[in-house]
Design brief:
By secondary structure, the protein is an alpha/beta fold. It contains 17 helices and 22 strands. Helix 1 packs parallel to helix 12 and helix 13 packs parallel to helix 14. The two termini are about 25 Å apart. The protein binds 1,4-dihydronicotinamide adenine dinucleotide (NAI) and 2-oxo-3-(phosphonooxy)propanoic acid. The site of 2-oxo-3-(phosphonooxy)propanoic acid has 12 residues, from loops.
Length: about 525
């Protein structure tokens, strides 16, 4: 298969080389939205940084696109809802530029404290104004970190080494980690009045938009200095401008802006504001890291696998992959089998996690999505994958639920998928007894022991002599070899189930004949 990937922002050559070893790569930077919309239909993958706006219209025009890779952390320039709806995997490289952004923040803070950019410009003009650039020390000052994630934590370590007192706010803060780093955890209301320097390291989301504004600035220390190396929009620039003009805020260091590039007449025109053009991630080391990371993830996805840092679907933590992945694969096969066994419009899908699968925790969401993919992908026009499986079900009015039970009919771990349609109900249960040994252990009420692979015929019939023989004769006449057979029943003479593993497809006319056999209630052929 000849894949094509578009790189629409500057990406380190090392990443592009990795991609070129796998597929065709076009590097076209500086495209307008209109230009991007015109060409995106040709591509299977798109790699961006913060310069490209991957809007809903771009996603709409992307006929073949399966992967959008963000060579960096922030994904606020990508319309995740639109991508999710279309089943496009969006992944980033979250840790690759952490240190670059952290060091840039430190550099900005030191430059702000000592007026280095303003002094540099003055000296270059031939001036020698030593008293005009009196600074403040970082030593002993309180640094307030808002957003204690990767960058916030790295910054705390370094600021402590400079003998600053570090305080932090994050609604999801890891208190243990904060304690280890000697950081005092505060609420925002507590942090604002005590900090000499305030630096934001949150994503730009609804909750953080204009987090720093006239009202919150009023609660800050007089002469506070503010740094934003995270995202424009976390600070209300107009409000900050006023506060600097009034002398409430002594200065600001900005790497990111509400509009990029920022207007020359806006906040950057103030002498007390120092600025860089979104350079937080611009180090040789960080660019190599993020480019290689997204290139590798892109290849994995185009090969049919998953990406390591998917942002629009549940992910399995790396240390859980070995345990969860076999069940996820099994669930997908169970879903694929079920959809071939049922008739009618699906109303609900229930995935029950039995025995010790309760220990899977949040990872059940990943497994459930793969069960839905197995079930819905064969019957829907739009490809269904881990990203859009849940949405695809919801859009078709299918209720999806997960339940957890200790009940496991003798197995350590067991997953049961129950499908209810407007005509019937069916269920299958599966287990992975040892690595690489997935089994279907129950179909409806009947225990089985079936490998979920290849061609199968599953019938329900009256448990009376002769039925199985007639069955085998019909299949034999079609030259279909029977590889294995299991019969399950609850009581002699009752309804029984038969699972036949066969070596090739059973033609429809043979299936039609089988259902005509006296005593056969249902018979379904399925390919897993
Ligand atoms: N200037 C640049 O070139 C760069 C900017 N960034 C930006 O820096 C920011 C942080 O990046 P990372 O530390 O890697 O992300 P992260 O995801 O590791 O940390 C973000 C933290 O913000 C916290 N948070 C969420 N909502 C919050 C709220 N309402 N108030 C306070 N905290 C909240 C989260 O709990 C999380 O701990 C992102 O916006 C990212 O895009 C990242 C790299 C380079
Ligand atoms: O990783 C991030 O969030 C950044 O803001 C870096 O942006 P960039 O890749 O340099 O355009």
């Amino acid at each position: 298969m000849n894949y094509k990937v578009l790189v629409s922002d500057p990406l380190a050559e090392e990443g592009i080389e990795i991609l070129r070893g796998f597929c065709e790569v076009d590097v076209r930077t500086g495209l307008s939205e209109e230009q991007l919309i015109k060409i995106i239909g040709e591509y299977d993958g798109l790699l961006v940084r913060s310069g490209t706006q991957v809007t809903e219209s771009v996603i709409e025009a992307a006929e073949k696109l399966r992967f959008v890779g963000r060579a960096g952390a922030g994904v606020d320039n990508i319309n995740l809802d639109a991508a999710t709806k279309k089943g496009i995997i969006v992944a980033n490289a979250p840790a690759g530029n952490t240190l670059a952004a952290c060091e840039h923040t430190l550099a900005m803070m030191a430059s702000l404290a000592r007026n280095i950019p303003q002094a540099t410009a003055s000296v270059k003009k031939g001036e020698w104004k030593r008293s005009a650039f009196m600074g403040v020390e970082l030593n002993d000052k309180v640094l307030g970190i808002v957003g204690f994630g990767r960058i916030g934590q790295e910054l705390a370590k370094r600021a402590s080494a400079l003998e600053m007192k570090v305080v932090a706010y994050d609604p999801y803060i890891n208190r243990e980690r904060a304690k280890e780093l000697g950081v005092e955890v505060m609420t925002l209301d507590e942090l604002f009045p005590v900090a000499d320097f305030i630096t934001v390291h949150t994503p730009l989301i609804k909750e953080t938009k204009h987090l720093i504004n006239t009202t919150t600035i009023a609660t800050m220390k007089d002469g506070v200095r503010i740094i934003n190396c995270a995202r424009g929009g976390i600070i209300n620039e107009a409000d900050l401008c006023d506060a600097i003009a009034q002398g409430k805020v002594a200065g600001a260091a900005l790497d990111v802006y509400e509009e990029e590039p920022p207007k020359a007449s806006g906040i950057i025109s103030l002498d007390q504001v120092i600025c860089t053009p979104h350079l937080g991630a611009s180090t040789v080391e960080a660019q190599l890291n993020v480019a290689v990371s997204v290139a590798k993830q892109c290849i994995e996805v185009l090969k049919g696998g998953s990406a390591k840092f998917v942002v629009n679907a549940p992910m399995i933590p790396p240390d859980q992959v070995e345990r969860i992945e076999p069940y996820a694969n099994l669930a997908q096969k169970m879903g694929k089998l079920l959809i071939q066994l049922v008739e009618g419009r699906i109303e609900s899908v229930e995935v029950e996690y039995g025995g010790k699968t309760a220990e899977f925790g949040q990872n059940t969401k990943y497994i459930t999505r793969l069960a839905l993919k197995g079930m819905l992908d064969p019957i829907l026009q739009t490809p269904v994958n881990i990203v859009n499986a849940e949405l695809a079900a919801k859009e078709r009015g299918i209720r999806v639920s997960e339940t957890i039970t200790e009940e496991s009919f003798g197995f350590t771990n067991v997953i049961t998928i129950r499908v209810k349609t407007d005509k019937m109900e069916e269920s299958v249960s599966g287990n992975v007894s040892s690595p690489g040994k997935p089994r279907i252990v129950k179909i409806g009420e009947y225990m089985t022991d079936m490998t979920p692979t290849g061609h199968v015929v599953i019938s329900r019939h009256h448990d009376v002599p002769g039925v199985i023989g007639k069955f085998a004769t019909i299949i034999g006449h079609k030259n279909v070899n029977i590889a294995g057979m299991q019969v399950g029943r609850n009581r002699p003479g009752d309804e029984a189930i038969m699972v036949l593993n066969v070596d090739s497809e059973v033609p429809q006319d043979a299936m039609d004949e089988i259902v005509q056999i006296d005593g056969v209630f249902t018979a379904k052929y399925a390919k897993i």
